[in-house]
Design brief:
Strand content: 15-25%
Strand order of the largest sheet: 3-2-1-4-5-7-6
Order of helices and strands: HHHEHEHEEHEHHEHHE
Number of helices: 10
Radius of gyration: 19 Å
CATH architecture of one domain: 3-Layer(aba) Sandwich
Structural class: alpha/beta
CATH class of one domain: Alpha Beta
CATH topology of one domain: Rossmann fold
Largest sheet: 7 strands, mixed
CATH superfamily of one domain: Vaccinia Virus protein VP39
Distance between the termini: 22 Å
Number of strands: 7
Length: 299
Protein backbone atom coordinates (compact mmCIF):
# COMPACT_ATOMS: atom_id res chain seq x y z
CA UNK A 1 0.00 0.00 0.00
CA UNK A 2 1.26 3.46 -0.83
CA UNK A 3 1.53 6.25 1.71
CA UNK A 4 -1.69 8.32 1.64
CA UNK A 5 -1.29 11.61 -0.16
CA UNK A 6 -1.20 14.76 1.95
CA UNK A 7 -2.75 16.75 -0.87
CA UNK A 8 -6.23 18.13 -0.09
CA UNK A 9 -9.15 16.10 -1.37
CA UNK A 10 -10.74 17.33 -4.60
CA UNK A 11 -13.52 19.86 -4.00
CA UNK A 12 -16.63 17.80 -3.18
CA UNK A 13 -19.51 17.69 -5.62
CA UNK A 14 -22.99 18.83 -4.48
CA UNK A 15 -23.91 15.18 -3.78
CA UNK A 16 -20.73 14.65 -1.75
CA UNK A 17 -21.28 17.89 0.17
CA UNK A 18 -24.78 16.74 1.08
CA UNK A 19 -23.54 13.32 2.18
CA UNK A 20 -20.61 14.74 4.14
CA UNK A 21 -22.96 17.03 6.04
CA UNK A 22 -25.34 14.15 6.78
CA UNK A 23 -22.63 11.77 7.96
CA UNK A 24 -21.01 14.42 10.12
CA UNK A 25 -24.25 14.48 12.11
CA UNK A 26 -25.15 10.79 11.87
CA UNK A 27 -22.06 8.56 11.69
CA UNK A 28 -22.89 4.88 11.54
CA UNK A 29 -26.42 5.39 10.29
CA UNK A 30 -26.32 2.53 7.77
CA UNK A 31 -26.06 -0.34 10.21
CA UNK A 32 -28.85 1.18 12.31
CA UNK A 33 -31.16 0.47 9.38
CA UNK A 34 -30.15 -3.07 8.38
CA UNK A 35 -27.52 -4.17 10.89
CA UNK A 36 -30.00 -6.69 12.32
CA UNK A 37 -32.16 -7.37 9.27
CA UNK A 38 -32.43 -11.08 8.33
CA UNK A 39 -31.55 -11.88 4.74
CA UNK A 40 -31.67 -15.22 2.90
CA UNK A 41 -30.32 -17.34 5.73
CA UNK A 42 -27.99 -14.68 7.16
CA UNK A 43 -28.51 -12.57 10.26
CA UNK A 44 -28.01 -9.43 8.14
CA UNK A 45 -26.67 -8.23 4.77
CA UNK A 46 -23.41 -7.47 6.59
CA UNK A 47 -22.93 -11.14 7.46
CA UNK A 48 -23.56 -12.11 3.85
CA UNK A 49 -21.05 -9.73 2.27
CA UNK A 50 -18.49 -10.39 5.02
CA UNK A 51 -18.62 -14.10 4.22
CA UNK A 52 -18.05 -13.46 0.51
CA UNK A 53 -15.15 -11.10 1.23
CA UNK A 54 -13.44 -13.44 3.68
CA UNK A 55 -13.75 -16.39 1.29
CA UNK A 56 -12.24 -14.31 -1.53
CA UNK A 57 -9.35 -13.17 0.62
CA UNK A 58 -8.56 -16.68 1.83
CA UNK A 59 -8.66 -17.96 -1.74
CA UNK A 60 -6.11 -15.34 -2.83
CA UNK A 61 -3.07 -17.43 -1.95
CA UNK A 62 -0.78 -16.51 -4.82
CA UNK A 63 0.59 -14.18 -3.60
CA UNK A 64 -0.98 -14.27 -0.11
CA UNK A 65 -0.62 -10.57 0.72
CA UNK A 66 -3.50 -9.08 -1.26
CA UNK A 67 -5.54 -6.48 0.60
CA UNK A 68 -9.21 -6.41 1.43
CA UNK A 69 -10.41 -2.85 0.82
CA UNK A 70 -13.78 -1.49 1.90
CA UNK A 71 -14.92 1.60 0.02
CA UNK A 72 -17.20 3.91 2.04
CA UNK A 73 -16.39 1.94 5.19
CA UNK A 74 -18.29 4.35 7.43
CA UNK A 75 -17.85 3.69 11.13
CA UNK A 76 -16.16 0.33 10.50
CA UNK A 77 -19.12 -1.91 11.29
CA UNK A 78 -18.47 -4.28 8.36
CA UNK A 79 -14.69 -4.25 8.82
CA UNK A 80 -15.13 -5.32 12.44
CA UNK A 81 -17.42 -8.13 11.29
CA UNK A 82 -14.75 -9.27 8.80
CA UNK A 83 -11.99 -9.22 11.40
CA UNK A 84 -13.98 -11.60 13.60
CA UNK A 85 -13.24 -14.28 11.00
CA UNK A 86 -9.53 -14.12 11.79
CA UNK A 87 -8.40 -11.84 8.96
CA UNK A 88 -5.26 -9.92 10.07
CA UNK A 89 -5.94 -6.18 10.51
CA UNK A 90 -2.93 -5.34 8.35
CA UNK A 91 -4.61 -7.01 5.37
CA UNK A 92 -7.66 -4.75 5.61
CA UNK A 93 -8.04 -1.12 4.55
CA UNK A 94 -11.01 1.16 5.11
CA UNK A 95 -11.66 4.14 2.85
CA UNK A 96 -14.22 6.87 3.44
CA UNK A 97 -14.45 10.55 2.53
CA UNK A 98 -16.08 11.40 5.90
CA UNK A 99 -13.77 12.31 8.78
CA UNK A 100 -16.69 11.87 11.16
CA UNK A 101 -17.31 8.30 10.05
CA UNK A 102 -13.60 7.46 10.22
CA UNK A 103 -13.44 8.96 13.69
CA UNK A 104 -16.14 6.53 14.78
CA UNK A 105 -14.24 3.70 13.09
CA UNK A 106 -11.00 4.60 14.88
CA UNK A 107 -12.88 4.41 18.18
CA UNK A 108 -13.50 0.69 17.62
CA UNK A 109 -10.76 -1.22 19.49
CA UNK A 110 -11.07 -4.12 17.06
CA UNK A 111 -9.91 -1.88 14.20
CA UNK A 112 -6.58 -0.98 15.78
CA UNK A 113 -3.99 -1.73 13.11
CA UNK A 114 -6.40 -1.28 10.18
CA UNK A 115 -5.36 1.63 7.91
CA UNK A 116 -8.30 4.03 7.59
CA UNK A 117 -7.93 6.48 4.72
CA UNK A 118 -9.91 9.70 4.26
CA UNK A 119 -10.20 9.60 0.48
CA UNK A 120 -12.70 9.60 -2.36
CA UNK A 121 -13.24 6.34 -4.19
CA UNK A 122 -12.42 8.22 -7.38
CA UNK A 123 -8.92 9.13 -6.15
CA UNK A 124 -7.38 6.27 -4.20
CA UNK A 125 -3.80 6.35 -2.94
CA UNK A 126 -3.65 2.55 -2.92
CA UNK A 127 -1.07 0.91 -5.16
CA UNK A 128 -2.15 -0.68 -8.43
CA UNK A 129 -2.81 -4.44 -8.26
CA UNK A 130 -2.65 -4.37 -4.44
CA UNK A 131 -6.13 -5.65 -3.54
CA UNK A 132 -7.42 -9.21 -3.70
CA UNK A 133 -10.95 -8.09 -2.81
CA UNK A 134 -12.83 -4.79 -2.64
CA UNK A 135 -16.25 -4.36 -1.07
CA UNK A 136 -18.76 -1.56 -0.68
CA UNK A 137 -21.92 -1.96 1.37
CA UNK A 138 -24.88 0.25 0.56
CA UNK A 139 -22.84 3.15 -0.81
CA UNK A 140 -21.64 2.39 -4.33
CA UNK A 141 -24.91 3.54 -5.88
CA UNK A 142 -24.62 7.05 -4.39
CA UNK A 143 -21.01 7.66 -5.44
CA UNK A 144 -20.37 10.38 -8.03
CA UNK A 145 -18.57 9.81 -11.32
CA UNK A 146 -19.13 6.06 -11.27
CA UNK A 147 -17.00 5.56 -14.36
CA UNK A 148 -14.01 6.95 -12.46
CA UNK A 149 -14.82 4.82 -9.41
CA UNK A 150 -14.96 1.72 -11.61
CA UNK A 151 -11.64 2.69 -13.21
CA UNK A 152 -9.98 3.09 -9.80
CA UNK A 153 -11.35 -0.23 -8.58
CA UNK A 154 -10.01 -1.90 -11.72
CA UNK A 155 -6.61 -0.28 -11.16
CA UNK A 156 -6.31 -1.27 -7.49
CA UNK A 157 -7.64 -4.83 -7.87
CA UNK A 158 -5.15 -7.41 -9.03
CA UNK A 159 -6.18 -9.56 -12.01
CA UNK A 160 -8.71 -12.09 -10.78
CA UNK A 161 -9.50 -9.95 -7.73
CA UNK A 162 -13.12 -9.75 -6.61
CA UNK A 163 -15.36 -6.69 -6.29
CA UNK A 164 -18.61 -7.02 -4.29
CA UNK A 165 -21.05 -4.18 -3.69
CA UNK A 166 -24.60 -4.07 -2.37
CA UNK A 167 -27.58 -1.75 -2.20
CA UNK A 168 -31.19 -1.63 -1.06
CA UNK A 169 -33.70 -1.00 -3.82
CA UNK A 170 -37.44 -0.80 -3.46
CA UNK A 171 -40.11 -3.03 -1.96
CA UNK A 172 -39.88 -6.80 -2.24
CA UNK A 173 -42.78 -7.97 -4.42
CA UNK A 174 -45.72 -9.31 -2.47
CA UNK A 175 -48.12 -8.21 0.19
CA UNK A 176 -48.67 -7.09 2.82
CA UNK A 177 -45.65 -4.82 3.09
CA UNK A 178 -45.25 -1.58 5.02
CA UNK A 179 -42.51 -0.23 2.77
CA UNK A 180 -44.83 0.82 -0.10
CA UNK A 181 -46.93 2.60 2.53
CA UNK A 182 -43.85 4.48 3.72
CA UNK A 183 -42.92 5.41 0.15
CA UNK A 184 -46.37 6.83 -0.53
CA UNK A 185 -46.21 8.99 2.58
CA UNK A 186 -42.63 10.00 1.78
CA UNK A 187 -43.56 11.10 -1.73
CA UNK A 188 -46.55 13.04 -0.43
CA UNK A 189 -44.25 15.15 1.77
CA UNK A 190 -41.01 15.28 -0.20
CA UNK A 191 -41.47 17.79 -3.01
CA UNK A 192 -38.08 17.79 -4.72
CA UNK A 193 -38.80 21.10 -6.44
CA UNK A 194 -38.75 22.96 -3.13
CA UNK A 195 -35.75 21.25 -1.48
CA UNK A 196 -32.02 21.62 -1.92
CA UNK A 197 -31.38 17.88 -2.28
CA UNK A 198 -29.36 16.49 -5.20
CA UNK A 199 -30.42 13.29 -6.92
CA UNK A 200 -28.38 10.82 -4.89
CA UNK A 201 -28.53 7.49 -6.72
CA UNK A 202 -27.04 6.65 -10.11
CA UNK A 203 -29.95 4.96 -11.88
CA UNK A 204 -27.62 2.59 -13.72
CA UNK A 205 -27.14 0.69 -10.46
CA UNK A 206 -30.85 -0.15 -10.41
CA UNK A 207 -31.04 -2.12 -13.68
CA UNK A 208 -29.19 -5.12 -15.06
CA UNK A 209 -28.46 -3.24 -18.28
CA UNK A 210 -26.98 -0.33 -16.38
CA UNK A 211 -24.83 -2.55 -14.18
CA UNK A 212 -23.61 -4.50 -17.20
CA UNK A 213 -22.59 -1.24 -18.86
CA UNK A 214 -20.46 -0.31 -15.84
CA UNK A 215 -18.79 -3.70 -15.32
CA UNK A 216 -17.85 -5.31 -18.60
CA UNK A 217 -14.64 -6.37 -20.37
CA UNK A 218 -14.29 -2.86 -21.76
CA UNK A 219 -14.00 -1.48 -18.19
CA UNK A 220 -11.76 -4.33 -17.03
CA UNK A 221 -14.24 -6.76 -15.47
CA UNK A 222 -15.68 -10.21 -16.12
CA UNK A 223 -17.82 -12.88 -14.41
CA UNK A 224 -20.55 -10.42 -13.47
CA UNK A 225 -23.17 -11.79 -11.08
CA UNK A 226 -26.24 -9.93 -9.84
CA UNK A 227 -28.24 -11.46 -7.00
CA UNK A 228 -31.40 -10.15 -5.38
CA UNK A 229 -32.78 -11.34 -2.06
CA UNK A 230 -35.53 -10.34 0.35
CA UNK A 231 -34.31 -8.44 3.39
CA UNK A 232 -36.69 -8.25 6.35
CA UNK A 233 -37.10 -5.10 8.42
CA UNK A 234 -40.10 -6.55 10.26
CA UNK A 235 -40.56 -4.86 13.62
CA UNK A 236 -43.14 -3.00 15.63
CA UNK A 237 -44.65 -0.07 13.72
CA UNK A 238 -42.46 2.31 15.72
CA UNK A 239 -39.42 0.10 15.13
CA UNK A 240 -39.96 0.03 11.37
CA UNK A 241 -40.44 3.79 11.34
CA UNK A 242 -37.22 4.34 13.28
CA UNK A 243 -35.30 2.46 10.56
CA UNK A 244 -36.95 4.06 7.55
CA UNK A 245 -36.57 7.47 9.17
CA UNK A 246 -32.91 7.35 8.07
CA UNK A 247 -33.65 8.12 4.43
CA UNK A 248 -31.06 10.70 3.41
CA UNK A 249 -33.59 13.13 1.96
CA UNK A 250 -35.52 13.34 5.22
CA UNK A 251 -32.59 15.20 6.75
CA UNK A 252 -33.96 18.29 4.97
CA UNK A 253 -37.42 17.99 6.50
CA UNK A 254 -38.73 20.13 9.31
CA UNK A 255 -39.53 18.50 12.63
CA UNK A 256 -43.21 19.10 11.92
CA UNK A 257 -42.98 17.27 8.58
CA UNK A 258 -41.21 14.33 10.17
CA UNK A 259 -43.68 14.08 13.04
CA UNK A 260 -46.71 14.39 10.75
CA UNK A 261 -45.41 11.64 8.45
CA UNK A 262 -44.57 9.46 11.45
CA UNK A 263 -48.08 9.84 12.86
CA UNK A 264 -49.70 8.97 9.53
CA UNK A 265 -47.40 5.98 9.06
CA UNK A 266 -48.09 4.57 12.53
CA UNK A 267 -51.85 5.03 12.12
CA UNK A 268 -51.94 3.27 8.75
CA UNK A 269 -49.46 0.55 9.70
CA UNK A 270 -51.40 -0.50 12.78
CA UNK A 271 -53.83 -2.48 10.63
CA UNK A 272 -50.87 -4.50 9.26
CA UNK A 273 -49.88 -5.98 12.63
CA UNK A 274 -49.08 -9.67 12.58
CA UNK A 275 -49.80 -12.12 15.40
CA UNK A 276 -46.52 -11.24 17.14
CA UNK A 277 -47.24 -7.51 17.05
CA UNK A 278 -44.79 -6.74 14.25
CA UNK A 279 -45.59 -5.37 10.82
CA UNK A 280 -44.02 -6.78 7.62
CA UNK A 281 -41.47 -4.55 5.93
CA UNK A 282 -39.48 -6.20 3.12
CA UNK A 283 -37.01 -4.65 0.70
CA UNK A 284 -34.92 -5.80 -2.25
CA UNK A 285 -31.26 -6.32 -1.39
CA UNK A 286 -29.04 -6.39 -4.48
CA UNK A 287 -25.54 -7.85 -4.37
CA UNK A 288 -23.26 -7.42 -7.38
CA UNK A 289 -19.97 -9.23 -7.80
CA UNK A 290 -17.42 -9.35 -10.62
CA UNK A 291 -13.75 -10.05 -11.13
CA UNK A 292 -10.95 -7.92 -12.44
CA UNK A 293 -10.19 -9.30 -15.87
CA UNK A 294 -6.74 -10.60 -16.65
CA UNK A 295 -4.63 -8.57 -19.02
CA UNK A 296 -3.65 -4.93 -19.23
CA UNK A 297 -6.22 -2.22 -18.70
CA UNK A 298 -6.99 -0.08 -21.70
CA UNK A 299 -6.01 3.59 -21.32
Amino acid sequence: MTTPSLEPMTMPTPIESFLLHFHARHPGHSHRVIGRAPLAGFDSPYERIAGVAVSALRAASAPPDGLLVELACGDGYLLERILREGIPPARCVGVDMSDAELGAARARPALAGVPLLCERAQELSLASNSAACMVSHGSFNVMCDLEQVVAEVARVLRPGGLLVWTMLDGPWPGSPNAFPLFLRLFDATHDRATRDVPVLADRRTRTRTGIESLFCPRTGFEELTIEEAEVSLDDSPEGVWSRLRWFYEMATWTEAEVEDTRARFLAAADSMRQADGTIPCRMIHRQVSCRRAHGELRP
